[in-house]
Specification:
Length: 103
């Protein structure tokens, strides 16, 4: 039986940079482009990682949901105008996370 390493270029996936992207999204709600830039990788590379690394894609989605829920929890404490803050937040969520169900 001939066992040879499969050819091709090694994966560009870096756990350290992947965690930097996830942390930026979770802490600031950054877009993929913004988080990628801060982590020092291209947006295209992050998109490639999402397609080829299912655990990374799940971490990205979870980070976005975590940020969204923390923001939603803080709406009532930010101002007495809870309704206007809610509208702004709803708009933000629909634009930032299309397809993500709020309820």
């Amino acid at each position: 039986m001939d066992i040879r390493p499969k050819g091709g270029r090694p994966s560009s996936y870096s756990t350290v940079r992947a965690w930097a992207v996830v942390a930026e999204i979770e802490e600031t709600g950054a877009t993929l482009s913004g988080a990628a830039k801060i982590a020092g990788v291209s947006r295209q590379l992050v998109s490639k990682w999402r397609k080829t690394q299912p655990e990374f894609a799940e971490m990205i989605d979870e980070a976005g949901r975590g940020y969204m829920w923390r923001q939603m929890a803080s709406i009532d404490t930010r101002t007495r105008k809870g309704r206007s803050q809610w509208r702004k937040f709803e708009y933000f969520c629909r634009r930032r996370f299309p397809g993500l169900s709020l309820f």
